[in-house]
Amino acid sequence: MVRATGSGGPTLAVVAREAGVSVPTASKVANGRQDVAPETRRRVTEVLDRLGYVRRQRPPAHRRPDLVDLVVHDLAGPRAGAVLHGVDQAAHEAGLGVVISAALTGARGDGPGRGWLERLSARGPADGPAGVLLHVKELDAAQHAWLEQRHIPCVMIDPVADPPADIPSVGATNWQGGVSATEHLIGLGHRRIAVIGGARHRTCGAGRVAGHRSAMSAAGLQVPPEYVRYGSFDEAGAGRQMLDLLALPEPPTAVFACSDAMALGAVRALGERGLRVPRDVSVVGFDDLPQAVWATPALTTVRQPLSEMAAAALRLLLRLLDGDRPEGMRTELSTRLVVRDSTAPPAA
Question: 165 vs 28, 142, 169, 182, CA distance in Å?
Answer without folding.
Answer: 11, 15, 10, 31
